[in-house]
Amino acid sequence: MTIYIDPPTWPGHGRLWSHLVSDVSYEELHTFAARLGVPPRAFERDHYDIPEQRYADAVRAGAVEVSSREVVRLLHAAGLRRPKGRYPSWGSRSS
User: Fold this and answer.
1) Contact between 19 and 12 (Cβ < 8 Å)
2) Residue 20 φ then ψ, to 5°
């Protein structure tokens, strides 16, 4: 099981955010996020938005640090990339 996280460089709502992804399945990603205590509403299409303050927690829990570009590459390679506008954000966490 490998979960990846990019640096907290994405601005929004007055803070910086990271993206937490899996290169295996959404189920793996949801399980990891739940263990971290990340709320389901933080799931957006194919990743979880993680605030800068929780970045170190995710890494300590086992998330591998990668670049933002690598996050996108991993999602594409795994067939898990969901383009914006074609899937619900967090209303459905289906695999």
Assistant:
1) no
2) -105, 125
